[in-house]
Structure prediction request, 83 residues.
Amino acid sequence: MINFKEKVLKVVAEIPTGKTLSYKQVAQMAGSKKACRAVGNILNKNYNPKIACHRVIRSDGHLGGYNRGAKNKIKLLKKEKAI
Prediction:
């Protein structure tokens, strides 16, 4: 059986280049609509480059955190034309 962390990472891995999802959307898609903070914590600990954590942003449109630095998140999203 797949756990919540694995579901979150699977959802994020499937976000296409140039698109973003909110932490809330990821939580809902992973099966727990109120687990936004848990999504952030899971992504903060992820260092797998195949899982594009930079594509997850806050519901209010702000970018939120990124474990490789906010400047890198902005750089990656601009490169992908997501912002």
Observations:
- The longest strand covers residues 21-22.
- The first helix runs from residue 4 to 13.
- The beta strands are 21-22, 56-57.
- The radius of gyration is 12 Å.
